[in-house]
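Notes continue from the previous slide.

Worked example: a multi-chain complex. Inputs as given:
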Amino acid sequence: MAKIASFGAYVPLFRLSREEMGTAWGVPAVPGERAVANADEDSLTMAVAAGADCLAGIDPSRIDGLFFATTTAPYDEKQCAGVIAAALDMRTDINTADFTGSLRAATTALRAAADAVDSGSARNILVVAADCRLAEPESMGEQLLGDGAGAVLVSKQGSATLRAFHSIAGEQLGVWRRSDDRYIRSFEAKAETRYGYVQSAVQAGKAVLEQEGGAPGDLAKAVITAGDPLSQGGVGTSLGLSGGQLQDSLFMSVGNPGVPLVLMMLAGALGEAKAGDKLLVINNGDGADAFVVELAESFAPAIGRKGLAGHLLRRRSLPNYTAYARFRKLMKRDEVDPRGSAVTYWRDTNIVLNFHGGRCRKCGAVQYPIPRLCGECATKDQIEEVKLAKIGNVYTFTLDHLEAGQYVNVPVPRLVLDLEGGGRVFLSMTDGDPQEVKIGMPAEVVFRRLHEASSFHNYYWKCRPVPEAAS
Amino acid sequence: MGSIKDKTAIIGVGCTKFGELWEKDAEDLIVEAAFEAMEDAGVTPEDIEATWVGNLYDFTGLSGSVAAEPLKLFGKPTTRVENFCASGMDAFRNACFAVASGVYDVVLACGVEKLMDVGGSGLPVDMGHPVMRGASAPAMFALTATRCFHEFGWTREDLAHVAVKNHKNGALHPKAHFRRPITLDTALNAPMIAWPLGRFDSCAMSDGAAALVITRPEIAKQGRHKHDYALTKASALTMHAFLPMYRASFDWLGFPATQAAATRAYAEAGIKNPVEEIDLAEVHDCFTITEILNIQDLQFCKRGEGAKFVRDGHADVGGEVAVNASGGLKCFGHPIGATGCRMLCEVTKQLQGRAEGAQVKNARLGLAHNLGGPGSVCAITILGLPE
């Protein structure tokens, strides 16, 4: 039976208090805060971040597939999973697919991955889910949503067994967005909760529990996704679960991120779980999926992974709603994009997406981008392609007020970064306070959307300060 | 390797006013500069046998027509030269080789740039790659300042001294973009462009053109400037990395392109002690930090002592080497393709004792230096008077 070999999560750095959102519009606010993706983030870049977290310490060339689940794919036509796999430096002879359209897409992908592993068509598949959804400005939905990503590595080997999958195709309108809609819509929430969400979730959960046998109290945790804590509690009660068994819905800290919620909650549960624990997972959206995760006695958390807890610890408050509005481009502004080239972007995939550099076989110098002649000793065609570390230290920097020929008030830090293990890169900094940049400061390399030149998403790398160890 | 020393002579110089010349186009500028130079030399357009024109931005695609069309140099060769901020000086350099070879007797080297027509803040930045990009010119040079602050303990005030000196000089020059002296406080309190470089650490965006008539010394001896033509003592041009930001061996404490070009130029000119022998230097102060590093790279002082050299007044007119007596790029302006030719006009006039701004007394040997890219190219020309 398929196993979970690793898991990961990603929560963008920025949080906006719901009180601030209420004040901005002069409307009541619910408690807590929501996570807000930076202006250069989208579901694809967040999926890369969660995928990288999941693959910490794991060789990406050993992965046989990548499934991406989202309702907010940056492309309506063009696969995103392939871009994510390239940014994670995976092989090209792998199975990639996007699972979209439903808030349940993450567990659809997970089940498909488990089926592929069980059938023997893949040794392992990385399932990543991310969303960056928008609700109508001023609406309560805007306060309730949040951005984030989660990932699991489904594998033949692992210490967390996936089993007892049950799916319900519970057709009801629910939450929807037509092709041309920017904001999510819903009809009558009460009816949706009672007949749509709760009914499907309980039906799927009961089916799993019946198959498993034993008492509901035997479950260490139940990962039950819900748009709000109340309905999560309702499903739990119907299944005979106590409040203490319910995994935190992230309502207060992240908001409802949509598709990735189930994987983020699962990452949270696995981060706290111990050997021998049994978890029930119920995910909803156009029906429900439910399954069990059982941890073997050998279960131990992987080293190097930030997981959900690590990402929740790392936060920075947005000062006001305007910052959120700017990040999500709620106000239409004219933007100038530089010249782009899909041909150059494709030809340089190994440099641009795989983040590979070169090492001179003669003098050993590691360099980026990959030259034909060594930049240090000028030897011709003796460069071997190497992976570059995604962490380094600032050699020198500037805080640049000129961006694409325009003066900007908040400068963009441009960092010359010496990477661990060799290679020097020049990257713009994101997610950080320009005034905190110092020579010698450690910074990590992260995947972001740079610009929209030639009307495609030009993804590339930026860097951001490495957070100080959580105290 | 051969040498250009004493083989070519500048017999005429012309330079427009630099600045925001909204009402003039490139045709106006190049015609003004070229005719002033030809008049100075006592030649006519018919005497010009070949032309080289330095130009970087606005007319890319116009090729040799940048100069041939406005000057109506039809039936003769014109070549457009593009080499970052050294485009103008590289045009001069190629013109010198053509004259020295004996193929031509009288040629024109000129440069023009019309940055006001390009629009935007700062120079257009396009490194030719969709995502692996450079940054704005101030940002690129700021990378050196940040590292030098770290290594040498320099401060923004050290940089401000360069701006104050160059504005003091430029204020005296009728053709300079800016005509006002500034104080240290003005420089230090200006808005930031790319930390640690503020507005007064950066040269302005300027329009302008400059031109030179070049021949061989034996012909110069029969012309209008028979006693005070400017002899080419050395001409060096070196390339270095296009993207130094990606080079682990690039220390950002100086520019290898300048260091190599200086070594070559001094050897060609027979200069043993630059700071003693050179009377004035027009160096590429696109940013204040660049001037300080140029002073070091040109061996006027030791590495790490450039800021002190300026602070102590050694770079003043009347100091050890008058650095940017014209006001430099900072105050005179920097129309990219024109700058190298403008510097050569300035050095020529200084040697001839007819400087339009601050005159360096008894100037016998002068140097002009361009740095482009950031540090991707350096051109150095040394000019002297005939014995």
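Summary box: Chain B touches chain A at residues 120-122, 124-126, 129-136, 138-139, 142-147, 150, 191-197, 241, 243, 245-249, 252 (CB under 8 Å). The mean pLDDT of chain B is 95.
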